[in-house]
Design a protein that fits this description.
The chain has about 425 residues and is of the alpha/beta class. It is built from 17 helices and eleven strands.
Length: about 425
């Protein structure tokens, strides 16, 4: 084994056991008990060549994912999530080398330069991820193709039920009424817009930068007979005309793509578009503190230009826009449960995914889903739902209305036909 990798694992692994196999033989690390007792995780990995070992030791943030994608790092006992979780179970600071620190400093500098020289690459960045073959997403999403955190309340419900619960919870917070006009910023495959319109009698405009999502959303709305009350447009939120205001605005899983250099512009636009008595619900992933730079593997392969905000970074931009926060709810582990369901479904359809792309893509997607899940189970990432208004009196001064609205929405769901039962 490369001496640099041996030194790294020797410093890191204290809890659980990691066995490493490679051209130079086999070594084991750790063996200590997990917090609270027990043997901890037990994982075995194998390297195909010594160059892979040196690459991982030099730049683990980028190379771990790339080596796994290329099949040069194979998990023989456990799975890639267990390996990532084993690393996070231990303290990483002691394992930092000069090379790792130097690369980290370089990434901080590059991130700061990007933040100061913002370029609108929204369309390109969205297409990189969301314009993949639609059949890929059908392999692991729920029946309504909700590609954001589900709401597992009550605990233990299915993914499909949890995604319905998410829509119900958000629409209840919107306090939508018949005849209102609503805007969805980042409309995905149309599920939220259609649910909002059908459940509450609201006229909805959904905007997206994904041509594939636009096509499917329009097809689904037409099948449900909603062409007169739900429309989808290929539109960047920055270019929306301020002459049109909306009673309700909702954005689910889009804010992570805005970029922290654009938060003030985002909320200024929301302030322009939101009616004086309007209500917005913003649903986003959050992290416990501002990040100095993005994970380089995620930036390169999955979400270029994305950034997970801390709430502390969001509030100043929102306040500068003259907006008020009327409610914040933190969902700590709901996305971990969602991602676990997605990963299990995806791996159950591994052969179909390989037929669409190739084995390298399948391993990339598996690594993405596992790493994302680990962020919620081990790095204190969370989802926040922020209710935003221009006037404090636009919403009740208690939260009882959410429960009452959800009861009404459950009754609507009992009457609503699933899309597959609608002719067309």
């Amino acid at each position: 084994m490369a001496s640099s990798l041996h030194d790294l694992f020797s410093k890191i692994i204290r809890i659980g056991t990691l066995t490493v196999r490679g051209p130079g033989g086999e070594r084991s690390y750790g063996g200590g008990e997990a917090r609270g007792g027990g043997a901890g995780r037990k994982v075995t990995i194998r390297f195909a060549d010594e160059a892979a070992e040196r690459a991982l030791a030099a730049d683990p943030q980028l190379q771990l994912g790339e080596l796994y994608m290329d099949g040069r790092l194979v998990v023989e006992e456990g799975d890639i999530y267990e390996f990532l979780a084993l690393i996070k179970d231990n303290t990483l600071k002691e394992g930092l080398t000069f090379g790792i620190l130097l690369r980290g400093i370089g990434r901080i500098i590059a991130a700061q330069l990007r933040n100061r020289l913002p370029v609108n690459r929204n369309s390109r960045n969205v297409a990189h991820h969301y314009d993949l073959d639609e059949r890929l997403f059908s392999l692991f999403l729920d029946e309504d193709w909700q590609y954001s955190c589900a709401y597992f309340h009550p605990p233990g419900i299915s993914l499909d039920d949890a995604q319905i619960a998410k829509k119900r919870h958000i629409v209840a917070k919107l306090l939508a009424e018949p005849g209102q006009k609503a805007l969805e910023i980042g409309s995905g495959w149309g599920g939220m817009a259609m649910y909002l319109s059908e459940s509450s009698g609201v006229d909805v405009t959904g905007i997206t930068l994904s041509r594939e999502q636009l096509k499917i959303s329009r097809e689904r709305a037409a099948r449900r007979g909603l062409a007169g009350s739900v429309r989808f447009e290929l539109q960047d939120f920055e270019n929306l005309p301020p002459s049109q205001t909306y009673d309700r605005i909702v954005s689910v899983g889009m804010f992570e793509h805005v970029g922290r250099q654009n938060y003030r512009r985002f909320f200024r636009k929301v302030s322009d578009l939101l009616h004086e008595d309007g209500v917005m619900v913003l649903h986003s992933i959050g992290q416990p503190y501002p990040a100095l730079y993005n994970n380089p593997w995620i930036e390169k392969y999955i979400f270029p230009g994305g950034y997970i905000p801390s709430i502390a970074e969001v509030m100043p931009a929102l306040e500068k826009a003259g907006l008020l926060v009327s409610d914040i709810e933190i969902l700590p582990l709901h996305y971990a449960h969602t991602l676990r369901h997605w990963r299990e479904r995806f791996l159950a359809n591994r052969q179909k995914a390989r037929a669409l792309y190739d084995e390298r893509f399948v391993r990339m997607w598996e690594f993405y889903l596992a790493g994302s899940e680990m962020a919620f189970t081990h790095e204190s990432f969370f989802v926040f739902q922020m209710q935003i208004v221009r006037k404090r009196t636009s919403v009740p001064d208690h939260r009882d209305y959410i429960h009452a609205r959800e009861a009404d929405l459950r009754a609507f769901e009992q009457r609503r036909l699933p899309l597959e039962k609608i002719a067309g």
